[in-house]
Amino acid sequence: MATDRDTVLEAAVGVLSRRPTAHLDEIARAAGISRATLHRLFPGRDALIRDVGRLGLQRFAAALDTAAVEEGDAQAALRRLVDAAVPDAMLCAFLAGENQLYDDDGINDLWEVQIARLHALFLRGQREGVFRIELSAAWLSEAFFDLVAGLGWAIQDGRLAPRDAAFSLAELFLGGALRRDTAPPTHDAPTHRTSDRKPETDTP
Question: Which of 86, 11, 22 is nearest to 51 (CA)?
Fold first, then answer.
């Protein structure tokens, strides 16, 4: 019987991503444990959701570490990050879609640290001439994370084979983010923000 917290949290993600209002009984069954055991691990639904959020941020932080995003060529660092982040794409999808997490100051603080590292990667790449400068580093950071989340949903729903995930993500994102000799004209339309947790300004 599985009682490892991370295993239970991963099972919870699989259930909650399909049915956000799923009962704790369903989550316990998916994890292969009793509801009593689930309650011993997590005192309630809110605690379970917060711990899933924390696990997602911890895994994304580990992906940033594994990719060594502060080192070497920015494009190569981003490709390493794709490879490191894809296995936990479903956790990123949960982070992107669970509104309850936005009210947790501790989770917001963890988010700020990780998104700042991603933001710094794109800013460095812009300074190196790798990424397009007419797209803000803040927007590139948000778009990248949201694509990772979308990848998680696509894999779970069977719209994308796991073996194709890293390639699909890297090629789609870099196809729009890489700097080109002739860039299209820029517009002054405001950037849409899906979260108030992302950095607002950047100077390449």
Answer: 11
pLDDT tens figures, 87-133 = 999 999 888 888 778 888 888 999 999 999 999 999 999 999 999 99
Termini Cα distance of the chain: 52
Residues 107 and 66: their CA atoms lie apart, in Å, by 21
Reduced DSSP (H G I as helix, E B as strand, rest coil) percent helix, strand, coil of the chain, to 5: 70, 0, 30
Integer angstrom CA distances of residue 132 from 74, 85, 122, 139, 184: 12, 22, 9, 11, 11
Tokens for 180?
């080109």
Question: CA 88, CA 10: separation in Å to the nearest integer?
Answer: 9
CB 198 within 8 Å of CB 115: yes
